[in-house]
Design goal:
Layout (H helix, E strand, L loop, with lengths): L13 H7 L8 H35 L2 E2 L2 H4 L6 E2 L3 H7 L2 H32 L4 H16 L2 H11 L6 H6 L10 H30 L2 H9 L4 H12 L1 H16 L3 H6 L12 H11 L3 H28 L5
Antiparallel strand pairs: 1-2
Helix pairs in contact: 2-15, 4-15, 5-9, 5-12, 6-9, 7-9, 9-12, 10-11, 12-15, 14-15
């Protein structure tokens, strides 16, 4: 018999065999997990905001659909569902529309003046030396940190017709700033701008410092004026920051309460200086019509949300990233 002379093939080394095998597919759990990672970090803040914001808004909306006056609060009468009756009563009240118009115009004037003053001083901060800049910053932050009721009381004293130094300096005698409607609104506007412009100034100043100096230097060498540099160079680059300060100013100025209430003694003579927040306070607490005051609060919330969403939508159409 003849044996088979064919030898067995030599064994392949393990390292070579492993390198020849196709790699195993990787799991995508990391990508899926990264999608929820930001929400996990935000979860504690969202829980706090839910308790401090969502639940009160829910209660506000619920009361606006009920018959809820002092009789229901004291337990003398049962609480009944009124549906849209409070909103119908509110929209049929001519005073509501007068107050709404006054609130919109007053808030718009405050926002525009605050942005103008804040942006102007922010540009000024970039052009003065360190010591004047520090003094201006400290003075502005002091105004910003002053409580609204304290600042309002001080401004009322400054413009007092009998003892105020402003009338004496201007030679106005015993002129009362809070007697006439428009002068009272102007006085409150000055106080609102005084305590609001520091936020705009500091925020815009930080944005200006982040702009590369070469860009501003090139615009200056091309012969552009300071106003042209601001309008054509700074403002487009600062647009995301200006969006933030504008929305914040709209929210703050539209729901102003303390300044109007303190400086006009609850809304002025015969309610000539009422704004929606003070109007809601009078309806809810002075007249004990809590459901009607809640309806005014819901209307204010809807208006602010609509303004904010429309403003953000317009910016998205322009291709701005926020």
């Amino acid at each position: 018999m003849t044996q088979n002379a064919t030898a067995d093939p030599a064994p392949v080394p393990a390292a070579v065999r492993e390198s020849a095998e196709p790699p195993a597919p990787r799991k995508r759990s990391g990508r899926h997990g990264s999608r929820w990672t930001p929400w996990l970090y935000l979860a504690p803040a969202l829980v706090v905001l839910g308790g401090l914001l969502i639940y009160p808004v829910y209660q506000l909306g619920l009361i606006s659909f009920l018959e809820y006056t002092q009789a229901q609060v004291s337990g003398g009468e049962p609480t009944t569902f009124k549906g849209l009756g409070n909103y119908q009563e509110l929209f049929n009240d001519p005073q509501f529309w007068q107050v709404l118009l006054a609130t919109v115009l007053f808030a718009a004037a405050c926002v525009l003046t605050t942005l103008a003053v804040g942006c102007t001083l922010a540009v000024l901060l970039t052009r003065i030396r360190a010591l004047p800049r520090l003094i201006l910053m400290m003075a502005a932050l002091g105004a910003w940190a002053t409580p609204a009721i304290t600042g309002s009381t001080v401004w009322v004293f400054l413009f007092d017709p009998d003892f105020g130094p402003v009338n004496k300096v201007l030679g106005l005698g015993d002129f009362s700033w809070t007697y006439e409607r428009y002068s009272a609104f102007a006085l409150v506007l000055l106080e609102v701008v005084w305590c609001s412009f520091p936020f705009v100034m500091v925020t815009v100043y930080a944005g200006i410092k982040a702009i590369p100096g070469e860009v501003l230097e090139a615009a200056s060498l091309d012969g552009a004026s300071q106003w042209r540099i601001w309008r054509s160079v700074m403002a487009p680059m600062l647009r995301p920051i200006l969006v933030v300060v504008t929305i914040q100013s709209i929210i703050w100025d539209f729901k102003v309460f303390t300044q109007i209430y303190v400086m006009t003694n609850g809304g002025g003579i015969a309610g000539q200086n009422l704004v929606l927040n003070v109007y809601a306070y009078q309806k809810a607490f002075a007249s004990s019509q809590y459901s009607l005051g809640s309806a005014i609060g819901v209307v204010m919330l809807v208006i602010l949300l609509a303004v904010t969403l429309v403003y953000l939508r317009l910016l998205r159409r322009q291709g701005e990233e926020l």
